[in-house]
UniProtKB/TrEMBL annotation:
The keyword Membrane applies. Belongs to the ERG28 family. It is a multi-pass membrane protein. It comes from the Eukaryota. GO terms for biological process: sterol biosynthetic process. Keywords: Endoplasmic reticulum, Lipid biosynthesis, Lipid metabolism, Membrane, Steroid biosynthesis, Steroid metabolism, Sterol biosynthesis, Sterol metabolism, Transmembrane, Transmembrane helix. Its main location: endoplasmic reticulum. It is found in: Endoplasmic reticulum membrane. This is Ergosterol biosynthetic protein 28. The lineage of its organism: Eukaryota, Fungi, Dikarya, Ascomycota, Pezizomycotina. It comes from Elsinoe batatas.
Length: 153
C-alpha cells in the first residue's frame, strides 16, 4: 500500500507538484460529495445574506437562501471532477508548458467564477463554506504565477 501511494505522489522537485496532487485529489472527493448531498455545496453557494431584522427563524433562512439545486450541485461536481483530473495530471507533468498553463487556468477559471458569484450574481457569501475554494484558487494561482520560471526552464 505504501509503495502504491508513493508511486502516485509526484516525485518532481518542490512543493507545487505535491500541492496540485493534493488539491486535485480533494477535488475528486469533493465531486463525490456534490453528487451525494447538497449540504456542502449549499455552504459555498449560500445565496445573498438574509436581512438583519427578519421575522423568519434563522434556521429557515440558512437553508432557503441557497440557490443550489440538485442539478446545479451535480454540474458543479462534474466541473470539479474535471479540474481534479487536470490538476493531478499536471502535478506529474509540471515542467511541460501546456500542462503547467492548463493547471493554472483551472485556478483562474475557479477564481473568476467565485468572484463573479460573490460580487455580481450574489450567490456566494464570504463565509466558512466559500473561504476554502476561494483561498485555494487565489493562493494556487499566485503560487503558480510566482513559480512559473522555476518549473518551465
Amino acid at each position: 500500500m505504501s509503495a502504491l501511494l508513493t508511486s502516485l505522489i509526484p516525485q518532481a522537485e518542490g512543493l507545487l507538484p505535491k500541492w496540485l496532487f493534493l488539491v486535485g485529489t480533494i477535488s475528486l472527493l469533493n465531486s463525490i460529495q456534490a453528487y451525494a448531498s447538497l449540504s456542502a455545496t449549499r455552504r459555498v453557494y449560500a445565496g445573498p445574506a438574509p436581512p438583519s431584522s427578519s421575522s423568519v427563524p434563522p434556521n429557515t433562512l440558512k437553508d432557503s437562501g441557497s440557490p443550489v439545486t440538485p442539478l446545479s450541485a451535480r454540474t458543479f461536481g462534474t466541473w470539479t471532477f474535471i479540474t481534479g483530473i487536470v490538476r493531478i495530471y499536471a502535478a506529474h507533468r509540471l515542467n511541460e508548458p501546456a500542462w503547467f498553463e492548463i493547471a493554472a487556468w483551472t485556478f483562474a477559471v475557479a477564481w473568476g467564477h467565485f468572484v463573479s458569484e460573490w460580487l455580481v450574481f450574489r450567490s456566494v457569501r464570504l463565509n466558512a463554506g466559500s473561504a476554502g475554494p476561494f483561498g485555494v484558487a487565489t493562493g494556487s494561482l499566485v503560487w503558480m504565477f510566482l513559480q512559473r520560471g522555476y518549473y518551465l526552464k
